[in-house]
Amino acid sequence: MDTLWTPWRYAYVSTVERTVRPGVPAALEAWPGDKDCVFCNLLASADYAIAHGMDAALADRAALIVFRAQYCYICLNSFPYNSGHIMIVPRRHEAVLARLDPAEANELMELSQRTDRVLGRTYSPDGINMGINLGKAAGAGVAGHLHAHMVPRWAGDTNFMTVFGETRVLPEALETTWEKLRAGFAEDMAP
User: Fold this and answer.
1) CATH architecture for residues 81-191
2) Residue 67 and residue 70: Cα distance in Å, rounded?
3) What is the DSSP-derived secondary structure letter of residue 183?
């Protein structure tokens, strides 16, 4: 029998009701705001930590935010389908795509294009799944705050574990993914 060790999963199973990732710096944990929306919480807790003296990169790393723009931000999925799984999230709490301002909607698409380039250079995937699940019936895990998923995919990267074992095997730690993608977005912004 083979044994798969996934110690990073313990942080999830032991703290299911938490919305701030276990092990984040105390400045993030101290954020006194409403924690009903994980996406609002990520951004606001990182902003709170920065406002209270934490280095911006350290706060973003703790919140898994890899890139910030004017109307949206890009973060890693804490429980990804594949390494490199990111989400593009409007800063404003909104569930309905049609209610995004044109500037918000345009930036969401611009960041999707940028993410396509960054994932391509960073991971060389054979394809990228992209989607927005609007509403719980459509599969949205966080139905109240719309967000776009982008997931790198590789030809032949399939195994029985996901289908039969209901287990995903990820080859890279989230911290490593954050470092790679943070650098990739910084490079993409360079002239």
Assistant:
1) 2-Layer Sandwich (3.30)
2) 10
3) H
Three-state DSSP at 149 gives: strand
Residue ranges per structural domain of the chain: 8-63, 81-191
Q: Is 171 helix (H, G, I), strand (E, B) or coil?
A: coil
pLDDT at 166: 58
Tell me whether strands 148-153 and 86-90 are parallel, antiparallel or unpaired: antiparallel
- Residues 149, 129 contacting (CB under 8 angstroms): yes
With a cut of 90, say whether residue 111 has pLDDT above it.
yes
Torsion of CA 102, 106, 80, 18, to 10 degrees: -40
Catalytic residues: 147
Integer Cα distance of 127 and 50 in angstroms: 36
pTM, full prediction: 0.79
SS3 of residue 13 by DSSP: helix
What's the Cα-to-Cα distance from 48 to each of 15, 25, 26, 28, rounded to whole Å?
A: 22, 12, 11, 7
In this model, does residue 30 exceed pLDDT 60? no
Nearest partner of 36 among 23, 22, 18, judged by Cα: 18
Q: Quote the DSSP letter at residue 9.
A: G
